[in-house]
């Protein structure tokens, strides 16, 4: 999960595997695979960086626990 912030400053977690696309014009909008749209304060670059970090953490955890990938 990655943590993002709504425009009203409420924070929530999103499963990045369920994000279909990200738009930035001017607000950043996450379009989910079910068609839901979420408008967040973070920039598109920040969201992408958080997804990359999340995936790296998953791989590192799997590797350190001896799981075969």
From TrEMBL:
InterPro entries reported for this sequence: SwrD-like
Domain of life: Bacteria
Keywords: Cell projection, Cilium, Flagellum
Pfam families: FlbD
PANTHER family on file: SWARMING MOTILITY PROTEIN SWRD
Name of the protein: Flagellar FlbD family protein
Taxonomic lineage: Bacteria, Bacillati, Actinomycetota, Actinomycetes, Micrococcales
């Amino acid at each position: 999960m990655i943590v993002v912030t709504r425009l009203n400053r409420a924070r929530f977690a999103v499963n990045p595997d369920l994000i279909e696309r990200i738009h930035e014009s001017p607000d950043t909008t996450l379009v989910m695979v079910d068609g839901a749209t979420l408008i967040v304060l973070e920039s598109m670059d920040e969201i992408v960086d958080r997804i990359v970090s999340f995936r790296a953490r998953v791989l590192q955890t799997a590797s350190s626990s001896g799981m075969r990938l």
